[in-house]
Specification:
alpha/beta; Quinone Oxidoreductase, Chain A, domain 1; Rossmann fold; seven-stranded mixed beta sheet; six-stranded parallel beta sheet; ADH-like_C; zinc
């Protein structure tokens, strides 16, 4: 089959690789009909090289049809399914608590990390990912989300990651109808976090440097601003001088905008060019994130408010303004999205003919899998208005 493989920092290629096979009775194999490019994939592309091996199959936002079903998979050949990005058993202590990203059955204990993820480095189990024509799905008796045949793929595809991640970001923001929320960054997660908060009755502000991303959010009733102190002042003034009740950081470890972010970028990139025996411990113990978005969130949120982190962070030595966090009594919530916890809330909105979350206004590029290298570069450089790329693996 054809699959997108990691080959080095800022380098992916589409290669012929062996077809996946059933390995456990609760496995399934799906033929991938749509698979998306995620902002988290760019962390592999740019930062997390020390934990990658050339040839790793990437991608964690797939859906498709079951072509082989293990005897204990609870699936049938022909079922149409969306595959959550994490691999969870559904039975352990953490799964029962709705914390599927901490699944005890699939935890990557040798790395000290949580549940295995599709296509996401040694840190998360080095499981072959979903930017491919076929995908082996472990724990298929629990993970796959069965969906109907009436709607096109793009209405369901984002149940794999983007929509639950955005929904959790809003839920973790601890806000109610009538409250105010600011979203830092209007990439895929930020777009939907802003729309979900708006749908749930909040006043939503967003800060984003790219004009096309601001324009997309504005179409859905979001009050958009460019980065800068003037925008922070304007949002404070619009919230009685206090700042919003919550700020969602949808940017993560590769933010731009201040001296610390420049230092963090230097540290991140330096690690890419060191031998693995040095680079992995350096990333695990001494790495720093680029924190411009997080710093701005902490500055902007009102006293006693919440900063909800949905952007991925990975630095173990990132400096935080603890005095400010303590003095302002800021709540900080975070974590990988627990997909199955939120699906029942989101699925009715996905299937609603009125499209209340504007899913039809989200995908900017539909491409064959063969164009993955160009798509990664375009997405990373924010070219051609690229906000969300969906690949069709059957056009590889």
């Amino acid at each position: 089959m054809k699959a997108v493989t990691w080959q080095g920092t800022r380098k992916v290629s589409v290669e012929n690789v062996p077809d996946p096979t059933l390995q456990q009775p609760n496995d399934a194999i799906i033929e991938v009909t749509s698979t998306a490019l995620c902002g988290s994939d760019l962390h592999l592309y740019e930062v997390l090289g020390p934990f990658m091996t050339p040839g790793d199959i990437v991608g964690h936002e797939p859906m498709g049809r079951v072509v082989e079903a293990g005897a204990e998979s609870n699936l049938n050949v022909g079922d149409r399914v969306v595959i959550p990005f994490q691999i969870a058993c559904g039975k352990c202590y953490y799964c029962r608590k709705g914390l599927q990203t901490q699944c005890e059955t699939t935890q990557v204990t040798e790395q000290g990390m949580g549940a295995k993820l599709f296509g996401y480095s040694q840190l998360y189990g080095a499981v072959p990912g979903g930017q491919a024509q076929f995908l082996r799905v472990p724990h298929a008796d629990y993970g796959p989300i069965k969906v109907g045949d009436e709607l096109p793929d793009h209405r369901y595809l984002f149940l794999s990651d983007v929509l639950p991640t955005a929904w959790q970001a809003v839920a973790y923001a601890q806000v109610e109808p009538g409250d105010s929320v600011a979203v830092m960054g209007l990439g895929p997660i930020g777009q939907f976090a802003a729309r979900i908060a708006k749908h749930l009755g909040m006043t939503v502000f967003a800060i984003e440097p790219e004009a096309d991303r601001r324009a997309m959010a504005a179409r859905h009733g979001i009050i958009v601003h460019e980065p800068g102190e003037e925008s922070l002042t304007a949002i404070r003034e619009a919230t009685d001088g206090r700042g919003p009740d919550a700020v969602i950081d949808a940017v993560g470890m590769e933010a731009h905008g201040d001296a610390q972010s420049a230092l963090g970028k230097f540290a991140q990139l330096t690690a890419q060019f060191l031998p693995e025996k040095i680079s992995q411990p350096m990333m695990e113990n001494l790495s720093m994130d680029r924190l411009a978005a997080l710093y701005a969130a902490i500055e902007l949120v009102r006293r006693g408010g919440t900063v909800s982190l949905s952007g991925v962070y990975g630095g173990q030595a990132s400096p935080l303004p603890m005095l400010t966090l303590f003095d302002k009594q800021i709540n900080v919530t975070m974590g990988q999205a627990n997909v199955k916890r939120w699906v029942d809330d989101i699925l009715p909105l996905v299937e609603d003919a009125a499209d209340p979350l504007g899913i039809d206004d989200f995908v900017t590029h539909h491409l064959p899998l063969s164009q993955a290298p160009e798509a990664y570069e375009m997405f990373q450089k924010k070219q051609d208005g690229c906000i969300k790329v969906v690949f069709d693996p059957q056009l590889a």
